[in-house]
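Holo prediction — pyridoxal-5'-phosphate.
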Amino acid sequence: MSATVPTESVRHPAYGGVPQASWDDWRWQMRSRVTSLGALSDLIELTDEERRGIEGRGEAFGFAITPYYLSLIGPPGCPVRAQAVPHVDELVTTPWDLADPLAEDAHAVTPILTHRYPDRGLLYVTHNCPVYCRHCTRQRKVGDVASAPSREMFEASYAYLERTPEVKDVLISGGDPLSLSDRKLAEICARLRSIPSIEVLRLCTRNPVTLPHRVTDALLEALRPHHPIFVHTHFNHPAECTPEAGAALDRLADAGFNVGNQMVLLRGINDDAETVEVLNRWLVRHRCRPYYMLQCDPVGGTAHMRTSVDTGVEILDAMRGRVSGLAIPQLVVDLPGGGGKVTLTPERLVRRDGNKRVYRDMRGREFTYVDEPL
Ligand SMILES: *Cc1c(COP(=O)(O)O)cnc(C)c1O
Ligand code: SF4
């Protein structure tokens, strides 16, 4: 597995004639997304498994790929490709697959607001994304055009938040919220900010990965008045760590956003300590703090991408001590059925002996802590 960070910008040769100004224009990238089997097969040589995946999944969960993200795609086995191009294995179902694994709809207080934890709310502002990640937990929404939030749904959600002052932290999610215009996003932030009990906003977006050109000065100026805004992004592999992506993270940090990464563990893509280390060191260099390493949710179509829960624990065990703590995220399993997130930690306690606790260090040596506070 190659775990290196690209040092140069790349463009698929088919886009060689596109003027730089268009290439850098996020609206051009959105308009020019590749969304059909015909268009994609003109650009990359599809395997039989991919063709059958596209045909089989077409209706239920289509694909879309920005020219930028498409340009990062390599031969079969490429981690970018595996996240963006459907595969016949997506048609495999297991008895424990769920359409809405986190029971977000059951915990919805309006059609676009989930209130699971006492002090946090999750607001879905769009079903649109630049790239439809094959491992998406919300494929039921992003695949359904009819799920686009209406003005009434927004109003009902603001009204709920106004009468529910326990909610102090609102996650603006989707879909990818940066699919909306600057004006619409600023309007949402301003409206949320007008509710005095809300302390913190979070913007959950994969645009720094799939369309870093979206992070424009105009966007930053539109959102800055509404700080504190935390950004949660979603880098999964060093192949996504391009100069453009790094610049987008730098611009966010310069504009006062606190940026964190939520990676999803994916089989054959990033399920080894070396890949996670290279990714996370790059993120930290760009002032993006690895926040969560998420176990892939059991959403239908992802069985082939899921790892064993032990894998995540082993990755953390290999990193803790050896790698800067800044580069180590928390490992999270989001409990199917809506139990919420639980964090898992490698067990370093070897044994208890009366008031003695014997732990092992990163090299396997044992050390004793006498647990006897006065
Ligand atoms: C993950 C999640 C949050 C945020 O959880 P944190 O652990 O605070 O990041 C809030 N609401 C819902 C429904 C979530 O799934
Ligand atoms: S950007 Fe997020 S919401 Fe959109 S497809 Fe990817 S994981 Fe799903």
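READOUT: Residues 102, 114, 116-117, 120, 122, 171, 341 surround pyridoxal-5'-phosphate (ligand 1) (CB under 6 Å).
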